[in-house]
């Protein structure tokens, strides 16, 4: 008796609607996935900006620590962990000593500085009202709006507990990154293709070297501006000289904006005491920042990376609009890192394509005139460039063919 056919068809795995066999469709899907991923990355940067900046702050703190560890390693041949501990003890010990001996004085001067700035602001608004620049009824409202904007800016950073927790997080991240930097380098390189890992290690080393020099130069500028400002203001009997020197030194880490802010505070305090001290504060401000701009910073830029002031200021405004005060604080190191990475990648691509990576002499480049003609090639240079790499290979192949046909050549 014949067997009845099965009532159900046996299950066989077949291509479904998500199976794309067409190469064109696959290529277009890959392009769409790249653009979609870039959009998600931009959204993540905007919404997770504060957390990302805390990580970047930890990395910048790690660069500071790594520079100190390397300097101590030149003179004290001990393990890296002990050198890191020595750097932490020296750094935090110095900060503790400063706050222990000058904390009470600085706190009292900070309260006086707040009162002086408020009084000078009210005088300025009254003068603007007398000139008709500000309506009379809106003077208090404008001050309230400015203070409200300051409060919103401060609330973006968080409360006191949040600020302390963020600072601790950056310090811990910096310590971990400094203790074993090779582990994190290898971890990032592991996520890249093998052909790109060598370039990543080269760029990471170049970025680290540049940032160490840049931040060390920034630290020297902060120390110079703070000490010199304190000395000159003390010489001119300006009140709150210690606090103004400290504020000037701290704000020197932020190019452009920090100098303007510290100068306004200094001049406001000077004119609150007398006109002569106000003029003296203006002289001190221009003297300090001219020495820093024409002596200290050019020396630092020659040894690290030269950033145009307009580009730095524009990037600071962009980072301030996106991420607030932390964006302004870290804008300079981030911009320096971007420039080093882009320059390194462009040079590597030029070398791979065989292009000339030399610099153009601006004294010989004239706008509107054609470039000078290249010298006529001689007999040796008449061979096309495409045939040049093939010559060694063809010569080697012909030599191997002769050796195989004639047998081994006896050595003489």
What does this protein structure show overall?
- It contains 13 helices and no strands.
- It is mainly α.
- It has a domain at about 45-135 and about 160-350.
- Helix 2 (about 50-75) crosses helix 5 and helix 2 packs across helix 12 (about 325-350).
- It starts with about 20 loop residues before the first helix and ends in a 6-residue tail after the last helix.
Q: Summarize this, please?
A:
The chain has 412 residues and is an all-alpha fold. Helix content is 75%, strand content 0%.
Category from helices, strands and their pairing? mainly alpha
What's the number of helices? 13
**Beta-strand residue percentage:** under 5%
Query: What is the 3D form?
Result: elongated
Key structural traits:
412 residues; disordered C terminus
Sequence-ordered SSE layout with sheet pairings:
Layout: H1 23-47, H2 49-75, H3 80-130, H4 139-157, H5 160-179, H6 181-190, H7 194-235, H8 241-251, H9 257-273, H10 275-303, H11 309-323, H12 325-352, H13 390-406
């Amino acid at each position: 008796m014949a067997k009845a056919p099965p009532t159900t068809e046996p299950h066989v795995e077949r291509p479904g609607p998500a199976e794309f066999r067409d190469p064109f469709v696959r290529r277009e899907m890959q392009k769409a996935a790249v653009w979609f991923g870039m959009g998600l990355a931009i959204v993540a940067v905007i919404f997770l900006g504060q957390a990302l900046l805390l990580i970047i702050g930890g990395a910048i703190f790690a660069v500071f620590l790594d520079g100190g560890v390397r300097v101590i390693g030149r003179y004290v041949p001990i393990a890296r962990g002990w050198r890191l501990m020595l750097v932490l003890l020296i750094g935090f010990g110095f900060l503790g000593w400063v706050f222990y001996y000058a904390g009470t004085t600085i706190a009292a001067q900070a309260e006086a500085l707040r009162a002086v700035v408020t009084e000078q602001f009210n005088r300025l608004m009254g003068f603007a009202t007398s000139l008709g620049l500000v309506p009379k009824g809106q003077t208090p409202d404008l001050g309230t709006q400015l203070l409200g904007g300051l409060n919103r800016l401060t609330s973006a950073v968080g409360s006191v507990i949040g600020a302390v927790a963020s600072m601790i997080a950056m310090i811990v991240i910096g310590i971990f990154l400094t203790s074993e930097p090779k582990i994190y380098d290898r971890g990032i390189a592991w996520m890249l293709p093998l052909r790109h890992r060598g370039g990543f290690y080269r760029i990471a080393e170049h970025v680290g070297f540049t940032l160490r020099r840049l931040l060390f130069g920034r630290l020297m500028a902060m120390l110079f501006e703070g000490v010199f400002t304190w000395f000159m203001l003390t010489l001119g009997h300006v009140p709150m000289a210690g606090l103004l020197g400290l504020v000037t030194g701290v704000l020197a880490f932020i190019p452009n904006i920090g100098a303007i802010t510290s100068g306004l505070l200094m001049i406001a305090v000077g004119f609150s005491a007398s006109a002569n001290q106000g003029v003296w504060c203006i002289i001190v401000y221009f003297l300090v920042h001219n020495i820093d701009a024409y002596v200290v910073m050019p020396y630092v830029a020659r040894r690290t990376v030269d950033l145009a002031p307009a580009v730095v200021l524009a990037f600071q405004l962009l980072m301030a609009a996106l991420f607030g005060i932390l964006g302004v604080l870290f804008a300079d190191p981030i911009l320096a890192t971007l420039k080093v990475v882009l320059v390194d990648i462009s040079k590597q691509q030029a070398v791979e394509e065989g292009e000339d990576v030399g610099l153009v002499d601006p004294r010989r480049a004239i706008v509107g005139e054609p470039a000078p003609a290249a010298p006529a090639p001689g007999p040796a240079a008449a061979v096309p460039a495409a045939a040049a790499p093939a010559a060694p290979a063809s010569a080697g192949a012909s030599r191997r063919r002769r050796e195989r046909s004639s047998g081994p050549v006896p050595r003489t």
